[in-house]
Specification:
The complex is a heterodimer of chains A (178) and B (107). Chain A is an all-alpha fold. Chain A is built from six helices and no strands. In chain B, a hairpin with a 2-residue loop joins strand 1 and strand 2. The chains are: A mainly alpha (178), B mainly beta (107).
Chain lengths: 178, 107
């Protein structure tokens, strides 16, 4: 299967799973929301670590470093909040689906090298962050009951917007590079 | 007498240490929601600018024309101080989040 198509799979699945336009958006409890959020961050961290090793473009590697740093910071805060609230993030079908999609995308990207890898990774990051922001806005934030968890999700949104803008700028740069 | 007392009272409540006070030698730039606030700052030569990171995300204050960009990141709660000696514009950005930009103009 085309690597670029595979790079979009996690984002497509994420968007369709959590889309408010679907017939019945998943009814997630706060522990489940926390698990989805932590899983989504962990997925991006893992792929970013792969990109730190494999990306041929220095700016792509720098972007990957930002992804590791920022998504780790979010998970650190989420973990601290869960501990303070005495909440254990609860595994659920959405998290499982995200992980399945991510595994498929990773397997495809591991076979790529050089510019092909760079482009596939950045394309995937654009699609993934776009899907994550939509999921935050349409499902995760509205469905969350706990005020502190909701605030955390709202507070991290600007970072995801910045990530999306950064990835789009890289996407444009890579598409025009000779 | 009342006018004099009023003027003295006004002077007593003058704010120090923040960007809106013309007599302040220290200026604060807050880093919050992936933005520098204020993004543009005018200071006098010899003044100190203090950046404070309120975000959970690490940030850097990296001058655009730095020969060797400093990639040391500020964690939440960390501060960076710079004494602005050279007159002119210092454009800077966050190495981790390039869309975050700011400028300090030293007169």
């Amino acid at each position: 299967m085309n690597a670029r198509i595979l790079s979009f799979l996690p984002a497509v699945f994420f968007a369709s799973t959590l889309s408010a336009q679907s017939a019945s958006p998943p009814d997630l409890s706060d522990p489940e929301v926390a698990h989805v959020a932590v899983t989504a961050n962990a997925i991006d961290i893992e792929l970013a670590r792969l990109a730190q090793k494999k990306a041929s473009n220095a700016e792509v590697r720098q972007f990957a470093t930002t992804m590791v740093t920022d998504h780790s910071a979010v998970n650190g805060q989420a973990g601290a909040l869960a501990k303070r609230l005495g909440v254990t993030p609860l595994d659920n079908a959405v998290s499982k689906s995200l992980l399945e999609g991510a595994a498929t995308a990773r397997a495809a990207m591991e076979k790529l090298e050089g510019r092909a890898f760079d482009r596939a990774y950045v394309d995937r990051e654009v699609a993934y962050h776009d899907a994550v922001i939509k999921a935050l806005d349409n499902v995760l934030v509205p469905t969350t009951s706990n005020a502190e968890l909701k605030k955390l999700l709202v507070d991290v949104r600007p970072a995801f917007i910045a990530h999306l803008e950064h990835a789009r700028a890289l996407q444009k740069s890579l598409s025009t590079a000779k | 007498m009342m006018v004099v007392a009023g003027l003295l009272l006004l002077l007593a409540f003058q704010k120090w240490g923040r960007n809106d006070s013309p007599a302040s030698r220290h200026h604060v730039v807050d880093i919050r929601a992936l933005a520098f606030d204020p993004a543009q700052l005018v200071v006098e030569s010899g003044d100190t600018v203090i950046w404070i990171n309120h975000d959970i995300f690490p940030h850097t204050v990296t001058p655009v024309d730095a020969a060797t960009p400093d990639s040391t990141a500020m964690s939440m709660g960390d501060t960076v101080l710079m004494v602005m000696s050279n007159k002119g514009d210092m454009r800077y950005f966050c190495l981790l989040h390039p869309s975050m930009t700011g400028m300090v103009t030293t007169r």
